[in-house]
Automatic annotation (TrEMBL), chains A, B:
Organism taxonomic ancestry: Bacteria, Bacillati, Actinomycetota, Actinomycetes, Nakamurellales
Pfam families referenced in this protein's UniProt entry, alphabetically: S-Me-THD_C, S-Me-THD_N
Chain ranges of the S-Me-THD-like C-terminal domain: 167-357
Region forming the signal peptide: none
Residues of the S-Me-THD N-terminal domain: 9-164
Domain of life: Bacteria
Protein name in UniProt: DUF917 domain-containing protein
Length: 378, 378
């Protein structure tokens, strides 16, 4: 299916992307601003479904890399969005034919729209994760053996670089320190792949899923229905917790926004706090005092989403504030994230948490439901 | 003049380069090893004088970037030497015709010989500084308006990058953090220039000057003459201090070897200590207790050279050890380093020292001889 992304779709798309961004991927307000401006100046963007993509297409993914805490203060320029795409085209010696989103998030689903508008290129209705993750190599194409190199990066000042590394983790390491030096956020593009590779390795229909989520939230509000319940239905997830933000510990270190948020239970039943540990994205949701003996409810790679209590508006990790009344939703990630190789790349252990991966429904990777698991030790 | 650099010239060249390296630029033993191995495997290297260089040549400079303390422990591979040259040739879309040394130093005058041997390219008898300086933009071509970009960099693991930045300081900033992440040293190449630009902006006859210095030291030893006196004559400098190393403070931080060395006076006359402040290279030589009211004798950009007392062997900053008996020589740098623009780039103030630049003969930039100058405050 080929369709056109116009200005009217942007707000829904950005809001839905912020839901799937699980706290990261950038602020949807800023993402929507950028995409609307690019469409107003350069025209609507053609979205192409994976089934319509020619096998010999040259697809690259486009994203913003850096700490979301900085992204909200430093808007990228349209030039810095297209500079790395041009650099990669020159490096490869042939023109890029299609752009794709590396991840889903308030900014990282809308930046590629802006890039596609300015460059006059079609954008795939697909992405590399089906959610957001903090590190560059954490995409399904890595699991399919697709190289992140050559990777282009650029800042808003006009500095541009191209990396060709021995594996996708080295791209992350070098691009991350460059991004920190260049002002804590850069635009990147890479993971050049053919149409056939894109069909195999990307998550399909991502943009329409975002629009469906965003418009679902908006329509529930109009219809005086509960938007959070609508999100749970659309994600096939479950509501995990209702509470009030009582503490947020946050530090922007090594190019990431890392921290924890403590939510105090509101209402009847279990009165334990919920602790959310995040690195750009929410990684672990656990019940208890946040120190030891906590009960881990859900972990990466499944989705942990924080929504404003009444409106269902997604709240990014950098948007968490004392006193917010929120509801936490857990939902399944793309099934490919539960393979052993994927869990080694994005499971709790990679981020320093000595707990087994726990799915959105509370089961472990082996499908066993457990309670009273080990403490979060990171 | 066009001549051939064979294995017999390497030891003298590396030793002489370490003298002009003023403590930095890498260890001459390691530099000589690399160059000899490359010549043995790939043949001798043609050295080309600036007067023989065609106007339409494509010259690039080659160097190792990083902390010398790490360079002595991590030898570059021949592949990592040629990877950035190939990347720049591909980026520019035309073949590099000549290599040049970015700076003079035990490794940074011999690495380009190794690169020239492997690539089968001629090497200019010239360099970008006439000495060594710690940061990438600190070359005379920067003062001539030549861009360091595109700059190629590569590590021994096979990771390669190309930077295109808005000015030469941004190349330094981004390449430096990449170098630190890639193991604290990388091979770099950049400053692409025409033959005409090379003739205007480079220091001429550098390699023959190094060989003359190195062989002068060796011949003085054979002839039972004083090698240090010979170095002073060849550099047109003066002997500044004779003493014993009694303290070395050294830290490898942010990709540099920074520190101070204290030398205790030996012999008659002034019994004050000499303090050498360095960042890879010696920057300031001052008499006193190293705290306040010191008398600054010589500063960057002129040359401060530490030689072993009897043999005249140059000692790099990472080679300084307690108890070494040494002599310190001061000598003039290329006159272009004394322009106001140059002093802003490489003078004491740039490195955080609130003192006027002091030439090798004790005069200030205005030619005034002074004593009792302000304290070194950095």
């Amino acid at each position: 299916m080929t369709w056109s992304i116009g200005p009217d779709a942007i707000d829904d798309l950005a809001r839905g992307a912020a839901v799937l961004g699980t706290g990261g991927g950038g602020d949807p307000y800023i993402g929507a601003l950028l995409a609307r401006r690019a469409i107003a100046e350069h025209g609507e963007v053609t979205a192409v479904g994976l089934d319509e993509l020619p096998d010999d297409a040259l697809v690259i993914t486009v994203a913003m890399m850096g700490a979301p805490t900085v992204m909200v203060e430093k808007l990228p320029t349209l030039e810095s969005i297209i500079d790395p795409v041009r650099a990669i085209g020159a490096y490869l010696g042939r023109p890029v034919t299609h752009l794709a989103c590396a991840e889903i998030g308030g900014v990282n689903s809308t930046i590629p729209i802006a890039a596609a508008a300015v460059l006059g290129l079609p954008l795939l209705d697909a992405d590399g994760m089906g959610r957001a993750f903090p590190e560059l190599q954490m995409v399904l194409p890595t699991l399919s053996g697709i190289s992140a190199s050559p990777l282009g990066f650029a800042d808003e000042k006009g500095n541009v670089g191209v990396l060709q590394t021995i594996d996708n983790s080295w791209v992350e390491r070098i691009a991350r320190v460059a991004a920190v030096e260049m002002g804590c956020s850069v635009m990147i593009c890479g993971f050049a792949m053919s149409g056939a590779q894109a069909r195999e390795s990307l998550v399909r229909d991502s943009l329409r899923r975002c629009i469906g989520l965003g418009s679902g939230i908006a329509r529930a509000r109009t219809d005086k229905l509960d938007p959070v319940t609508r999100v749970v239905e659309l994600l096939g997830g479950r509501e995990l917790f209702t509470g009030k933000v009582v503490d947020v510990q946050r530090a922007t270190t090594a190019g990431f926004a890392r921290g924890t948020a403590t939510l105090q239970a509101v209402g009847a039943g279990d009165d334990r706090d919920l602790t959310l540990a995040f690195q750009n994205e929410h990684l672990i949701a656990s019940l208890g005092d946040g120190v030891s003996g906590d009960e881990v409810l859900v972990t990466t790679p499944d989705l942990i989403v924080v929504l404003e209590h009444d409106t269902g508006e997604p709240i990014t990790t950098e948007g968490l504030r004392y006193g917010q009344r929120v509801r936490v939703v857990a939902a399944p990630s793309d099934p490919r994230w539960h393979s052993p190789a994927a869990l080694a790349m994005v499971g709790p252990g990679y981020f320093g948490y000595d707990v087994p991966a726990r799915r959105f429904d509370g089961t472990t990777a082996e499908g066993v439901s457990v309670t009273g698991v080990p403490a979060v030790t990171a």
